[in-house]
Amino acid sequence: MLRGFYTAASGMMSQQRVQEALANNIANINTIGYKADQTTLRAFPELLLQQMGSKEIPTKHRLNLPNSNPIGSINTGVYVQETVPNFSQGDLNETGKVEDVALLQGQLPDENGALFFTVQNEDGELRYTRNGNFNVDGNGFLVTNQGYYVLDDAGNPIQTDGLEFTITPDGLIQTANGTTQMGISYVPNADDLTKEGNDLFNGEAMAVPAGVTYRVQQGFLEKSNVDALQTMTDMMNAYRLFETNQRVLRAYDESMGKAVSEIGRIG
């Protein structure tokens, strides 16, 4: 019976974590470039039950041979294995601002591949983002809302020489003093990236290889890819599953109470 306690409790804990991930998605539904988190559930290893016994052989010395009869398997619960972002393309929102940039993915050779803007955090480390809500700082550099430098294809901060610049569909920034190629990075398996705060991802990326197509859209922003209706439906399902496990746990608790207080009582 105690195994039933653990199984029901693990179900409640896993659905609580699913609910937390879905609630975070809803909270970021208006966050530019946000990628919705997806949770994957996995069952604990199954146990194979067998009935152990022995069989008497009708011989002179009454030989007993051990034998076992398979009963079946039993599951020991479920847990949230991992939470991975969904890197599907979000819808575009036209803003008209020169600094706003949207990155549209085209043909990708890898099923889980994704493209990102390359930025540099406060520690000088490379990070990747889909949030193109950029600004121009007092020194003329293109930066994120957190003040992180947006990098070019050579890994250097992009100097815009003010707000008079245009960005071509292939990511070429044109200013009065010349042109600079935006640093667009490609990740063959975006599931390997680690999600950080401020819409940043950490991991290994490469230059855009041949065969990968994309388009940079100036004056647009990529909206969050959270599906509000689907997320609300998933939240209701998670809540119902949590309640189901809760009722199972309560039933086990009542059975245990009866076993302690009633069974074996001397009349």
Strands, helices and their partners?
Blueprint: H1 2-27, E1 37-43, E2 47-57, E3 63-74, E4 78-85, E5 92-94, E6 101-105, E7 114-120, E8 126-129, E9 135-136, E10 142-143, E11 149-150, E12 166-167, E13 172-175, E14 178-181, E15 184-187, E16 194-195, E17 201-202, E18 206-207, E19 214-218, E20 220-222, H2 228-261
Antiparallel strand pairs: 1-4, 2-3, 5-20, 6-19, 7-8, 7-11, 7-15, 9-10, 12-13, 13-14, 15-18, 16-17
Helix pairs in contact: 1-2
Describe the 3D structure:
By secondary structure, this protein is an alpha+beta fold. It has 2 domains: 2-83 and 231-256, no CATH class; 91-222, no CATH class. It is 22% helix and 34% strand. The protein contains 2 helices and 20 strands. It has helices spanning 2-27, 228-261, and strands at residues 37-43, 47-57, 63-74, 78-85, 92-94, 101-105, 114-120, 126-129, 135-136, 142-143, 149-150, 166-167, 172-175, 178-181, 184-187, 194-195, 201-202, 206-207, 214-218, 220-222. The strands form 8 sheets. Strands 7, 8, 11, 15 and 18 form a 5-stranded antiparallel β-sheet that branches. A 3-stranded antiparallel β-sheet has the order 12-13-14, with no helix packed on it. Strands 1-4 form a two-stranded antiparallel ribbon. Strand 7 and strand 8 (126-129) form a beta hairpin. The longest helix has 34 residues, at 228-261. The model has no long low-confidence stretch (mean pLDDT 87).
